[in-house]
């Protein structure tokens, strides 16, 4: 059955190949991009949740500290 | 710039937290009820609204959209403003989001037991509720995007990317999968039929798991693991790769739900290939979460929040390894249609979604109530109840799934099926169903401990409805990327562009899969003998849908000898061209019904539906006694025929005028046959329509001369 479907759409075989190519190129570019990044900015971003004002740095002083983690 | 003071709205956070707990318990309880029905079929029996076929969708919908859904909003409404250092854009929109979502859930809780369903898994809700969902979702999106716009933090943290992807993709999925033609209030037919309908449904179904049960929870993971362990995320670099690779690949993998079905094989292979690739970003994400705790494992011993997070993320890792494995065709051949899938999804649902939701509740409630958790010990008990409950759930289900598969496929040395009677394979796994229900009891017990604990916590604290915070706004000067500025860093400060890229990433896979399938409409090899359903069969089909028969019975025979021996000729795409919606099913608690037509006499079905045990001793199918007393509602029959014709089903012109005559004629003939066999029933009862439909199933291709069928099969093989 599927052969009929395949044959009836012109150039269908190229679909999976294009898909793989798109992904592969995308992935490689992504890797290249992130490895070119500056460590300090990455570290600063990684720290964002810890400085969002809800863990005791500006409000809610009684809620700071790890004893509340549960 | 000067320090600005603002207030986080904790009231909405509290509302979502309470809703998460409330709907969680309801969803778990309905789950326990349906689990019990699988070994005690008469439990709560004879009440139409409480049959397995109607409650099973209620269980899945409540757990996914009510429990996990409210948990997602809880996580977002708590973390988003804090990550952006601003209050939510609009309290009014927040409240519409909250109450609108609860209205969706209540509509589901009422309409599903009443039998209003589209039959499409995780999209069962009928069209008016679909519209409500779309409205509420858009309001949520507007509120989130507008909050991002007025942020005081220039760069969007990774959790927010996942929230954005969730909003965008769920909106696309919901709209595309909900193209349906209303027939009446609460009844519609999908625009697609058969193979296309199946592909769109599983593109949706798969990505509902991806973008409702995965991406928002990954966002939650990226916020709450660092928060609860007081450590930055292990690698921000990895999180960039994780995000883009995950959302890009996930969308392609839907066809792995349809392996060995009548779906075109190229689409199946594409689904498999991308499913395997998915391991990489999934595990990247999992490791990023777990490695955040490096050097902080001592905290895990102390904190129930971290315990739930760690076990949740680990379960995510297991499920996302298992999923790709189950997408391999040889593994899928064994696991599909069995309880193995049920085990797989519950590893994810109970521990990943459940675990992360519980962790959030234990983290957030004490904080917004400005107090400490009432009892850490009780929370630890909950953790163990939940974990043991999940194990007692999934292990018997794995066992049962493999048992089913082996028994279905076993042949004697003479070449006959070892267990030709499907019931033997059902009876074999009943003890496993009992242990599974016990696992459910443990899990619910844990959740009840949580309710007590949270209630006491709330009692001893007082809600900080408006939590004051302050931050310095960032300068909104340059729109352009500064020279040397990392591209992704720049992108993180451009929410609109970020959203557009996200949309592009998710739409590529959708388009590649969807477009060819949309094109094949005229290209599906038509089988001349496949004809539209008669009006009575159409009504019978709608009863089949209403009763949720598709929750336990597939209508899709795969091309295996074990299946063709048991059920008959394997399925052809051309057989389903008039099926709005497709009813292939995804689980065989009972046998496949694709070629049920003509297998048994009408009288067998008559007896079977009234008391399944009478024809099939030991059956766990519920009795459908009300079908024998309820009159078939034919008030929409003509509208249904019209709607089908509008969707492309070739009923002749003017047929709607004859439809009712045909319906009565066919009903009378079935009734007469039943009377001749000693069964008295009026011809206007629902059971007659259902019998008409069941007797039609899979018979069309048999109408062809045998040689023609063989020739068409041979020609298929010769072109492979």
The quaternary organization reads as: heterodimer
Low-pLDDT segments, ≥5 res of chain B: 705-720
- The secondary structure category of chain A is mainly alpha
* Secondary-structure class of chain B: mainly alpha
Strand portion of chain B: under 5%
Largest sheet entry of chain A = none
Order of helices and strands of chain B: EHHHHHEEHHHHHHHHHHHEHHHHHHHHHH
The gyration radius over C-alpha positions of chain A equals 25 Å
Taken from the alpha-carbon principal axes, the silhouette of chain A is elongated
In short:
The complex is a heterodimer of chains A (70) and B (720). With 70 residues, chain A is mostly helical. Chain A is built from three helices and no strands.
What does this structure look like?
The complex is a heterodimer of chains A (70) and B (720). Chain A is mainly alpha-helical and 70 residues long. Chain A is 53% helix and 0% strand. Chain A contains 3 helices and no strands. Chain A is elongated and about 50 Å long. Mean pLDDT of chain A is 66; it is low at 1-8 and 55-70. Chain B has helices at 10-37, 52-84, 91-111, 127-149, 158-177, 194-212, 215-229, 236-250, 265-277, 279-291, 297-302, 304-326, 329-335, 339-368, 376-409, 422-460, 487-491, 495-519, 535-546, 561-567, 602-610, 612-615, 637-646, 656-676, 686-696, 706-719; strands at 4-9, 180-184, 187-190, 466-471. In chain B, the strands form 2 sheets. Chain B has a two-stranded antiparallel ribbon with strand order 1-4. A two-stranded antiparallel sheet of chain B has the order 2-3. In chain B, helix 8 packs antiparallel against helix 10 (279-291) and helix 24 (656-676) packs across helix 25 (686-696). The chains are: A mainly alpha (70), B mainly alpha (720). At the A-B interface, helix 1, helix 2 and helix 3 of A face helix 2, helix 7, helix 8, helix 9 and helix 12 of B.
């Amino acid at each position: 059955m599927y052969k009929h479907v395949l044959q009836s759409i012109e150039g269908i075989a190229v679909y999976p190949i294009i898909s793989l190519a798109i992904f592969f190129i995308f992935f490689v570019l992504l890797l290249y991009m992130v490895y070119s990044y500056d460590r300090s900015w990455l570290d600063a971003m990684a720290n964002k949740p810890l400085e969002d004002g809800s863990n005791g740095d500006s409000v809610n002083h009684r809620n700071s500290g790890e004893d509340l983690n549960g | 710039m000067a320090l600005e003071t603002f207030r986080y709205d904790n009231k909405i956070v509290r509302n979502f937290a309470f809703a998460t707990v409330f709907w969680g318990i309801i969803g778990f309880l309905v789950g326990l009820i349906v689990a019990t029905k699988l070994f005690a079929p008469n439990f709560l029996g004879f009440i139409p609204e409480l049959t397995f076929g109607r409650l099973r969708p209620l269980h899945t919908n409540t757990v996914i959209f009510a429990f996990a859904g409210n948990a997602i909003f809880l996580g977002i409404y708590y973390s988003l403003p804090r990550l952006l250092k601003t209050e939510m854009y609009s309290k009014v929109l927040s409240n519409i989001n909250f109450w609108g979502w609860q209205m969706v859930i209540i509509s589901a809780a009422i309409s599903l037991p009443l039998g209003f369903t589209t039959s499409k898994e995780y999209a069962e809700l009928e069209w008016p509720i679909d519209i409500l969902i779309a409205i509420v979702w858009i309001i949520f999106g507007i509120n989130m995007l507008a909050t991002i716009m007025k942020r005081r933090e220039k760069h969007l943290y990774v959790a927010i990317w996942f929230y954005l992807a969730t909003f965008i993709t769920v909106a696309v999925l919901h709209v595309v999968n909900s193209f349906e033609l209303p027939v009446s209030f609460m009844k519609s037919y999908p625009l697609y039929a058969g193979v296309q309908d199946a592909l769109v449904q599983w593109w949706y179904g798969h990505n509902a798991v991806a973008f409702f049960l995965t991406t928002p929870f990954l966002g939650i993971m990226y916020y709450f693991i660092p928060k609860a362990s007081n450590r930055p995320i292990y690698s921000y670099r990895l999180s960039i790769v994780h995000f883009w690779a995950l959302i890009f690949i996930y969308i392609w993998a839907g066809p792995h739900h349809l392996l060995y079905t009548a779906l075109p094989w190229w689409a199946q292979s594409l689904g498999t290939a991308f499913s395997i690739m998915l391991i990489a970003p999934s595990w990247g994400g999992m490791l990023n979460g777990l490695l955040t705790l490096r050097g902080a494992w001592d905290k895990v011993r102390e904190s129930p929040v971290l315990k739930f997070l760690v076990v949740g993320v680990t379960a995510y890792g297991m499920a996302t390894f298992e999923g790709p494995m189950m997408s391999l065709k040889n593994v899928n051949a064994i696991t599909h249609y069995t309880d193995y899938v049920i085990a797989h999804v519950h590893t994810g649902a109970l521990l990943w979604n459940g675990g992360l939701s519980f962790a959030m509740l234990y983290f957030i409630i004490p904080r917004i109530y400005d107090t400490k958790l009432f009892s850490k010990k009780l929370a630890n008990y909950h953790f163990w109840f939940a974990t043991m409950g999940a194990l007692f759930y999934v292990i018997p289900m794995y066992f049962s799934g493999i048992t089913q598969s082996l028994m279905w496929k076993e042949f004697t040395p003479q070449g006959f099926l070892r267990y030709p009677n499907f019931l033997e394979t059902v009876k074999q796994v009943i003890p496993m169903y009992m242990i599974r229900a016990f696992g459910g009891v443990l899990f619910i017990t844990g959740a009840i401990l949580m309710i007590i604990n949270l209630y006491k916590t709330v009692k001893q604290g007082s809600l900080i409805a408006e939590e004051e915070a302050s931050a310095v706004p960032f300068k909104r000067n340059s729109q352009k990327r500064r020279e040397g500025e990392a591209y992704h860093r720049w992108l993180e400060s451009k929410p609109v562009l970020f959203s557009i890229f996200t949309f592009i990433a998710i739409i590529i896979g959708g388009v590649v899969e969807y477009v060819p399938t949309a094109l094949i409409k005229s290209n599906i090899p038509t089988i001349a003998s496949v004809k539209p359903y008669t009006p009575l069969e159409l009504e019978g089909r709608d009863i089949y849908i209403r009763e949720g028969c598709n929750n336990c019975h597939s209508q899709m025979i795969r091309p295996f000898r074990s299946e063709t021996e048991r059920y008959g000729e394997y399925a052809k795409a051309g057989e389903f061209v008039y099926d709005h919606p497709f009813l292939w099913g995804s689980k065989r608690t009972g046998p496949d019904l694709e070629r049920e037509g003509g297998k048994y006499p009408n009288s067998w079905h008559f007896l079977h539906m009234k008391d399944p045990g009478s024809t099939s001793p030991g059956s766990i199918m519920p009795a459908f006694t009300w079908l024998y007393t309820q009159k078939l509602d034919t008030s929409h029959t003509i509208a249904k025929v019209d709607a089908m014709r509008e969707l492309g089903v070739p009923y002749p012109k003017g047929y709607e005028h004859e439809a009712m005559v045909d319906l009565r004629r066919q009903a009378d003939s079935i009734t007469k046959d039943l009377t001749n066999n000693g069964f008295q029933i009026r011809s206007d009862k629902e059971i007659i329509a259902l019998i008409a439909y069941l007797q039609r199933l899979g018979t069309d291709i048999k109408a062809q001369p045998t040689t023609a069928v063989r020739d068409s099969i041979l020609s298929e093989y010769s072109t492979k």
